[in-house]
Amino acid sequence: MKKSIEKALMEFLADIRITGTERKKGIPLITFVYKEDDKAVLLKALPLPVADIQPEKKIPKGKELLYRVDFFREGKAKASFGVLPARKESATFLTLLENAIKKGDRKAGYQSLCDYLKFYNALCGLETLAEGELSFSVKVEGKAGAGMKDRYIFANTAYYREIISYVQTGRDVLNACPYGTPLPPFPDRSAFIAKWYKENGQGSL
Question: Of the four listed, 3, 24, 162, 174, which is most buried by Cβ atoms within 10 Å?
């Protein structure tokens, strides 16, 4: 949405008050502003996975890009601001941010924020994958016949529920703990499935 530069910047700097699913989960929100002619274009508070692809899809090349990140750290709501240089190529927000930081552009941001956002984006991707697999499992559970196919579906469902739990724990670590706190070990699929079969008296595949 085009606005006067002054109005766009005032909204860009205003408090973010969003109570949607992403905010409840603590997912970072990204706001963008870029100049177009004598106006400014404001892309309001988008959840990180959506915001990451905006520079490729909606923001023209050759535009200096202001961004704001609203996130949680050590249990407190925080905001961070940066300016990404005009780009010549299409790239995601996180790619542009990482490249600018590597080049030593101090206006772009800082490495710990970039690392935090990359971890968070990866968790969101895992959640989307797991939810898709669980949705598929629910659809086929009633159609599967007794035997190995049923057992595989139940084991698969248990694994992706474990992934959802991992994502939730990972978010808690990123939102509540100091920078550098390690995430829990990722659930190895083979080990998890083997353990599930053993605990459920199903033998093995």
Answer: 174
- Pairing type for strands 76-84 and 65-73 reads antiparallel
Contact 79, 64 (CB under 8 A): no
Q: Give how far the C-alpha of residue 128 lies from the chain's centroid of Cα atoms, to the nearest Å.
A: 10
How would DSSP label each residue in 149-183? HHHHHHHHHHHHHHHHHHHHHHHHHHHHS-TTPPP
Q: Which two tokens stand for residue 203?
A: 């033998």
Report, in angstroms and rounded to the nearest whole number, the Rg of the chain calculated over CA atoms: 21
42 alpha carbon, distance to own chain's centre: 21
What six digits make up the tokens of 95?
């790619």
Q: What pTM was computed for the model?
A: 0.86
Over residues 100-107, mean pLDDT: 94
User: What does the alpha-carbon distance between residue 31 and residue 120 come to, in Å, rounded to a whole number?
Assistant: 16
Distances (CA, A) of 2 to 40, 54, 84, 92, 101: 5, 16, 20, 22, 29
| Cα gap 160→86, rounded to integer Å | 41
Name the residue with higher pLDDT: 58 or 102. Answer: 102
